[in-house]
């Protein structure tokens, strides 16, 4: 990886939850660093604080803001600070280039296939068959997936559990790389769906006496390396077929004359996760009295997205509009959401309109969660990321993700081990 160093001196105490900003190195900007996680902050006295455990970065137009986490130590005013800004991709000096070094504003990025295998059907009591557990005691690992006192999963996958009486359960296990991981359930609950991927379950304990405890496997699978976001996923395969939606989906609609004049909204079902980007319309039948068309998601209007149809609009008249703020909250859609194209009551006498909504797709058919960038605890997400397929694993369906990685050797933050 390539990095750039920015040096500054703190003008005020940097306390937990505090911030400070520094300018970019000469010749570099926001685009040079976005997408990387392995930044570091060092002090003149030799202390080194890695991101994101101790800080996160907000990249602005002309400067980068260091967001010191609430649990980080106070750095007094006058402290000399060295901020190491990591750049995504491999250093060109690390790779042979056949003709000449690549330009400074380019980095190498690799394409990798992550084979998740053909996981077996989830086994809800595969680790612990129904049993009672005393307060502050450990459960007996006695399920069908237990071998020599250890619960062994076919692939790294999340833990599920259920019991009676609200309690906090602690699960200690190994990830697929052999690292110890500790995960806890939330207080005030009697069920648990884990977010971290377990390969070998070592122990389960409860802070309260409980009965009917079962512990087993879920259908959320761990990734072997750090994958930052769904944007890095190029293809999503089931049994070798790419099922990932295209980058853009077009949702057609039609307001016939009876619907336009009534008026009656055209109802659509959103097929993907994403954002409404553009609406386009064309007059199919000449309009006598015009009016407005608005777009709603689950009955909430998309801010700034509408069409104003003039009186006497002729066949073939075309309209195009975009939301006031692209990718804002009112433009967000999820698979299954209700989208409506609603005509105002002004339309009268005659007319019909056709159109289509352009949706920017941000999701997969399955559910992807990028590697957690929060400081690892017993309740944070998986440090490398997880994937839950759209179909139900049964031991016969194979799953694979084709991903673009800037650093295939990065396994995410250190696991929380208690």
What is the typical, i.e. mean, pLDDT?
93
The count of strands amounts to 31
Strand content: over 45%
Instruction: Write down the Rg.
Output: 27 Å
Distance between the termini: 30 Å
Number of domains: 3
The level of helicity is under 10%
Report low-confidence residues grouped into runs of 5 or more.
Answer: 91-97
The structure class reads: mainly beta
Question: What are the defining features of this structure?
Answer:
single chain, 418 residues, mainly beta, Jelly Rolls, 11-stranded antiparallel β-sheet, 5-stranded antiparallel β-sheet, 31 strands
Describe the structure.
By secondary structure, the protein is mostly beta strands. The chain folds into 3 domains: 86 residues; 162 residues, no CATH class; 114 residues, Sandwich (Jelly Rolls), CATH 2.60.120. The protein is 1% helix and 46% strand. It is built from 1 helix and 31 strands. Strands 9, 10, 11, 12, 13, 14, 15, 16, 17, 29 and 30 form an 11-stranded antiparallel beta sheet that branches. Strand 11 and strand 12 form a beta hairpin. It is globular. The two termini are 30 Å apart. About 2% of the residues have low confidence.
């Amino acid at each position: 990886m390539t990095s750039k160093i920015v040096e500054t001196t703190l003008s005020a105490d940097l306390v937990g939850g505090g911030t400070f900003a520094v300018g970019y190195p000469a010749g570099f900007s926001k685009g040079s660093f976005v997408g990387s996680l392995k930044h570091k902050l060092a002090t003149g006295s030799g202390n080194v604080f890695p991101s994101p455990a101790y800080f996160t970065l907000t990249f602005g137009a002309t400067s980068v803001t260091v967001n010191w986490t609430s649990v980080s130590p106070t750095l007094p005013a006058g402290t000399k600070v060295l901020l190491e800004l990591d750049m995504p991709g491999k250093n060109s000096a690390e790779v042979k280039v056949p003709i000449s070094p690549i330009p400074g504003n380019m980095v190498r990025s690799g394409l990798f296939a992550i084979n998740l295998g053909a996981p077996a059907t989830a086994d809800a009591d595969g680790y612990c068959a129904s049993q009672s557990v005393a307060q502050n005691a450990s459960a007996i690992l006695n399920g069908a997936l237990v071998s020599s006192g250890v619960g062994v999963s076919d692939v790294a996958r999340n833990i599920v559990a259920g019991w009676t009486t609200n309690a906090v359960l602690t699960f200690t296990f190994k990830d697929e790389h052999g690292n110890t991981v500790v995960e806890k359930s939330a207080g005030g609950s009697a069920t648990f769906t884990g977010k971290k991927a377990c390969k070998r379950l070592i122990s389960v304990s409860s802070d309260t006496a409980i009965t009917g405890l079962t512990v087993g496997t879920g259908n959320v699978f761990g990734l072997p390396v750090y994958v930052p976001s769904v944007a890095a996923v190029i293809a999503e395969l089931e049994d070798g077929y790419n099922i990932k939606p295209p980058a853009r989906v077009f949702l057609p609609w039609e307001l016939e004359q009876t619907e336009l004049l009534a008026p009656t909204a055209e109802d659509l079902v959103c097929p993907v996760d994403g954002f409404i980007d553009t609406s386009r319309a064309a007059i199919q039948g000449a309009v006598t009295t015009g009016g407005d068309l608005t777009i709603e998601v689950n009955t909430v209007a998309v801010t700034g997205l509408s069409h104003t149809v003039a009186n006497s609009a002729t066949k073939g008249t075309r309209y195009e509009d975009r939301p006031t703020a692209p990718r804002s909250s009112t433009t967000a859609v999820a698979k299954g959401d209700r989208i409506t194209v609603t005509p105002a009551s002004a339309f009268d006498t005659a007319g019909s309109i056709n159109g289509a909504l352009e949706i920017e797709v941000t999701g997969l058919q399955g559910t992807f969660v990028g590697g957690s960038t929060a400081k690892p605890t017993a309740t944070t997400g998986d440090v490398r990321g997880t994937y839950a397929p759209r179909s139900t694993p049964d031991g016969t369906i194979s799953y694979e993700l084709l991903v673009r990685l800037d650093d295939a050797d990065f396994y995410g933050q250190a696991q929380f081990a208690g």
